[in-house]
Automatic annotation (TrEMBL):
This is UPF0597 protein JOC27_000282. It comes from the Bacteria. Transmembrane segments: none annotated. InterPro entries: Ser_deHydtase-like_asu, UPF0597. Belongs to the UPF0597 family. It holds the Pfam family SDH_alpha. Residues 91-419 form the Serine dehydratase-like alpha subunit domain.
Length: 432
């Protein structure tokens, strides 16, 4: 693959579009972004706020801590943070810089202003609508399809911005149907390092920093620490612990940014941190490591293309599988080794549900990464799952297609039931 090939440029664009920085879980941050933008359009701090959101967004905001809010959770908290302290120009880092005084003001605003939440009445899987009112005026910001994709802005019912992507699945992004495993491997072997150094280098730096925070301090259920305490310090355990610890911190409201993949910080960490740990163990060169992380990212994105941004299917499964592919590449793996690693790992963990962002995501990441590593070790030991074994079929891309059908179509009703269970479940401090 050559730099002037269209597919080379498309793959670069996909990495640049996907590997962006975010402070906090991306669904509450998207709500904070919409709220900050609505306040900006209104021109004043609003007296009230109404948030409408799709079920999957509600699911992913319910239990996760909003960063820079002193531990607040939920949609009203995310909207209040965006209104009081958000900088809409920073998009998914909208809450990246919040003063101690503003943290107190967020709590006060939440307690003294009406912030109401309603389920969105449309078929969009990803939808956020924030309407703010104050001083005789109102403003509405609508986000659809993905976290920063503002499709409409109104002020006093007059449209001041309208995007053509409101009914467009591509949403102005590079088409993802160009992705396939053989060409992903080709791209990662031939890409000029300077073309990916910025985005991959930032992913490695940011995600390593929040992983270290998760291992050094107390966050969530401390899955990263538990793994190391229970299973030792071999590279396989370190790879799982590094990714889990990043999620521990992020789900617990850590204010450090992460670089996301497929709209998810957890997936961005699960795709990169295990590969980084194996790179250290193998003493891989910077060049080899960057190519391996890029491969893991693209394999993850390829799988998520058929699944969608939000689903009942846990995205960590795709990222753990991507990590297995990246680890195989670090070991000198060619297309065959990488393809078999992907198929093997997908066959192991497909079906893990997504029941929102929360501390248990770290444990699911550990399981997904373990499946990716096992898939690679199966190939090394001349073992594989073959066509006809469940959803596995002939050809790695065909198996990935089957996973997409399972997740997007087959688990549609599962997704609805998960959301019903979560919304009807009382919030308690202790689940025992």
């Amino acid at each position: 693959m050559k730099p002037d090939d269209k597919i080379y440029q498309d793959y670069l664009s996909i990495l640049q579009e996907e590997l962006i920085a975010a402070t906090g879980c991306t669904e509450p941050i998207a709500i904070a972004y919409a709220a900050a933008k609505a306040r900006e359009v209104l021109g004043a701090r609003p007296e009230s706020c109404m948030i409408k959101a799709s079920g999957n967004v509600i699911k992913n905001v319910k239990s996760v801590v909003v960063p820079n809010t002193n531990g607040l959770r939920g949609i009203p908290a995310a909207a209040a943070a965006g209104i009081v302290a958000g900088d809409a120009s920073r998009k998914l880092e909208v809450l990246g810089i919040v003063s101690a005084q503003d943290k107190t003001r967020i709590q006060n605003y939440l307690e003294t202003h009406p912030l109401t939440v309603e389920p969105a009445v449309n078929k969009s899987i990803f939808y956020i609508e924030v309407t703010v009112k104050g001083y005789g005026n109102e403003a509405t910001v609508m986000i659809q399809h993905y976290h920063t994709n503002i499709v409409c802005i109104t002020r006093n019912q007059a449209v001041i911005y309208q995007s053509h992507s409101e009914t467009d699945d591509k949403n102005g992004l590079t088409a993802r149907d160009c992705l396939n495993v053989r060409e992903i491997v080709d791209f990662c072997e031939s890409v000029r390092l300077e073309d990916i150094a910025s985005v991959i280098g930032r992913q490695i730096d940011y995600n390593s920093a929040i992983s270290a925070e998760g291992l050094e301090n107390t966050w969530g259920a401390n899955i990263g620490k538990v793994l190391l305490a229970a299973y030792g310090n071999d590279v396989r355990t370190r790879a799982r612990a590094a990714a889990a610890a990043g999620s521990d911190a992020r789900m617990g409201g850590c204010e450090k940014p992460v670089v996301i993949v497929s709209g998810s910080g957890n997936q961005g960490m699960a795709a990169s941190l295990p590969v980084i740990e194996y790179g250290k163990e193998l003493k891989s060169s910077r060049d080899k490591l960057y190519r391996a992380v890029a491969l893991s990212d693209l394999v993850t994105i390829h799988q998520k293309t058929g699944i969608g941004r939000l689903s009942a299917y846990c995205g960590a499964v795709s990222a753990g599988c991507g990590a297995g592919a990246g680890i195989a590449y670090l070991h000198g793996g060619d297309y065959d080794m990488i393809a078999h690693t992907i198929v093997n790992s997908v066959a192991i963990t497909s079906g893990i549900i997504c029941d929102g962002a929360k501390p248990s995501c770290a444990a699911k990441i550990s399981a997904a990464v373990d499946a990716g590593i096992l898939g690679f070790n199966m190939y090394k030991n001349d073992q594989q799952f073959i066509s006809g074994d469940g959803i596995v079929t002939k050809g790695v891309d065909n198996t990935i297609h089957n996973v997409g059908l399972l997740a997007k179509e087959g688990m549609r009703q599962t997704d609805q039931e998960i959301i019903k269970i979560m919304l009807n479940q009382p919030q308690t401090a202790n689940s025992k």
